[in-house]
Amino acid sequence: MIPTNLRGEDVFLLPYLANWAAEKPALTLEANASITRSLGGIESRETAAHTLRATSFKCSLFLRADESAAFRAALRQLGSTRVLMPLWPLAHRLVDGRIIYTDAAGNILTAPDGAIYIAGVNLAAPSPVQTSLWLTMERDLSLWEVHEDPLPEQLASFSERALRVPLLLGVLKKLPDPVALNRNLLGASIEFEDTAPAIFAPRSADDTAEEIDGAGRPVFPFAPNWADEVRAGGVSYEIEREQIGEGRTPATTYYPQPHARVLQAQFNTFSHAELARLVAFFHRRRGPVELFAVNHPHDGPIVARFAKKTLDLTFANGRITHTRIDFLELPHEAAPPVGETPGVTMGALPRRAQLFRFTYGLGTQQVVYRCTGYERNLVAAGELYLAQKIEHGDITESLEPEQTKVKLTASAWEGNPLMLLDPPRLEGPLKLEILRCSPDENGLAETAQLRFAGRVGKPNFDGPKITCEVAHLLADLQNNVPDMIVQADCNLEFGSLVCGVLLSTWTFTGAVAAYDGAALALTGVVRAGGAAMELAAGWFARGRVEFGDGDGFQSRSILSSTALAGGSLTLTLSQPFDLPPAGTVKFYPACDGSPSRCQVFQNFQRYGGFPFVPVGNPALKPIKKDTSQGKK
User: Fold this and answer.
1) Of 300, 414, 273, 426, which Cα lies nearest the Cα of 363?
2) In Å, what is the CA distance from 146 to each residue of 13, 105, 204?
3) What is the Cα–Cα distance from 110 to 107, expressed in whole angstroms?
4) pLDDT of 360-407, one tens digit each?
């Protein structure tokens, strides 16, 4: 393997040709689909992605002495580094586009006649499965280039015998265990998994118009290979049997339902165009989600879907591909039951994406962080949600608000708001809204539906994995805390509507003179919304200081302050800013809830406490001392 770099990420390139004599290359493409099926056989199916994913690519490598040394050295350095894996069955010469493969001796052969590949005509055939990532290389690796679409100009320096092959970006599912064939030759079986972002996902470039039946359904375009086994006589029912008690007969749950016919057969593609058409048909159906018509060998056309969310392709050579496909009939969707609406309550549902909107208050503003667990960034209702590793579990609903909750799982990416909770850096509650939308192929959704709103609890960290519980906002109503307490201190929040103090009249500004993480020195301090006044030491204790706006807005609590002297003072912060402050900052005092402090803000008429209530209980109970006479 050769170390290289892709968009700033260190990766390994695996440029060694596949050995077709040892193992036929096999590719598995998967659609991210979920299916809910009732005991009556009614289904709802949806996908959470627009792209296919290569969950497995298997092949065998045949390595010469120099390649063997480089391969073994790279395995010792691999660790968690991702790998660029060529799809060798889809390789072609740079000029003519013909497919190549190797025999047991490592000779490069053509697909049509098996002769050693030397020359060809200019066919310019596109790859049936593309990824937007390419490897162009001379066969002796004297020159190679990893590039994206479109073809860069520097490739003109390659010879016409150079090879061009689509690349997958991902990881080795398990470390290979190379086998020494002799002193100079090494064999290794590779099993690879695609972990690339959506822009490098495998896809088909086929745009052939699909055949449509009389009901407007697409028709599966291939006939089975009758030389292999075709299973077409079986049916499927939804029956649940459970052993209860010591008897011999299980409890059976069965609802009257139409039978669903099943069909399993092997299909072959004999050209690039046919393979591209098969992959495109599977992709457009969203794997097992969308229905279509397929010709049953005995009963004619039936309404069916792919029974699995994967398409398994085995390459017999560069052009011939084998795949075994299971189909499942959908009798409920050929004739929907009363009360069911295909596309709304049953059948193929719109694509779904989960959105997460975190908010937390910082002084006079709210900071909002939006992310999604989808495969790409989304814009929903005009708001941008960044693709991150985050998901939620089942939302537990209860008549008791404190029991309505959801579990959140995320990775520790930079800027994750959950990481502000440990060590604690938040100065207010972290709230979460979970929304759902149906994005189009461009990642746009006109609306988003709110599914849950709650307050984030204490997170648990397990390496880079974060889990936490989010309780519903209504759980706050269960708190045993009265709105008003009979006490000397004020019960109102400073600056709130009920309090009546206008923070704008008590806003101070100053220019940053120095900052060392804990102390912020300011000059030119003035009161922005009122007359100047003397400011004693500690006057801004428990207040707030703010600067910036938008994504750059930051706010911190003030622990203490020096007295104002010559228009300058120093604020001691509760914790450092994320980014050093500069220019002009705003800061506010706080109210300690005492009557004297309320009078400073000229607001005693709205005082929310009971100033004449004593701090402690003035009634004294006599001390009772129990005496013991001891034992005789």
Assistant:
1) 426
2) 9, 27, 20
3) 10
4) 876 567 788 999 999 999 999 999 999 999 999 988 888 887 788 999
Give pLDDT tens digits for 235-278. 888 888 889 988 888 888 888 888 888 888 999 988 888 898 99
The verdict on residue 601 lying in a domain is no
Q: Strands 43-63, 347-348: parallel, antiparallel or unpaired by DSSP? A: parallel
Q: Which residues pair with 116 in a beta bridge?
A: 109
Chain centroid to CA 282: how far? 23
Q: Which of 44, 43, 41, 37 is nearest to 235 (CA)?
A: 41
Do 358 and 469 fall within a single domain? yes
The structure tokens listed for 539 are: 């006057």
- The four Cα atoms 340, 344, 345, 351 give a dihedral, to 10 degrees, of 150
Say if 566 falls within a structural domain: yes
* pLDDT over 90 (residue 234): no
Same domain, yes or no: 137 and 8: yes
Please check whether residues 156 and 259 belong to one and the same domain: no
* Side-chain-facing half-sphere of 101: CA atoms under 13 Å: 24
- 507 is in which domain, residue-wise? 503-590
164 and 192 fall within a common domain: yes
Q: Which residues contact 483 (CB under 8 A, 6 or more apart)?
A: 491
Judgement on whether residues 178 and 53 belong to the same structural domain of the protein:
yes
Binned at pLDDT 50, 70 and 90, residue 150 comes out as: low
Q: Is the pLDDT of residue 117 over 70?
A: no
We report the CATH number of the domain holding residue 530 as 2.40.10.170
- On whether the CB atoms of residues 161 and 124 are closer than 8 A, the answer is no
Q: Are 543 and 587 in contact (CB under 8 A)?
A: yes
274: enclosing H helix or E strand: helix 272-284
Q: State the pLDDT confidence band at 578, using cuts at 50, 70 and 90.
A: confident
What gap in Å lies between CA 256 and CA 332, rounded to an integer?
A: 12
Statement to judge: residues 134 and 272 lie in one domain: no
Same-domain status, 438 and 316 = no
In this structure, is residue 333 part of a structural domain? yes
Q: Predicted confidence band at 511 (pLDDT cuts at 50, 70, 90)?
A: very high
458-467 — which CB contacts under 8 Å span 24+ positions? 458/421, 458/422, 459/418, 459/421, 459/422, 461/412, 461/422, 464/411, 464/412, 465/409, 465/410, 465/411, 465/412, 466/408, 466/409, 466/410, 466/411, 466/412, 466/416, 466/418, 466/419, 467/407, 467/408, 467/409
Q: What integer pLDDT is reported at residue 27 of this predicted model?
A: 92
* Residue 226 identity: W
Dihedral sign from CA coordinates of 383, 389, 394, 396: negative
pLDDT value for 434: 94
The C-alpha atoms of residue 160 and residue 94 are separated, in whole angstroms, by: 6
Residues 19, 168, single domain; the answer is yes
Give the span between the Cα atoms of 231 and 266, in whole angstroms.
Answer: 10
What is the Cα–Cα distance from 134 to 152, expressed in whole angstroms? 11
Q: What total number of domains does the chain contain?
A: 4
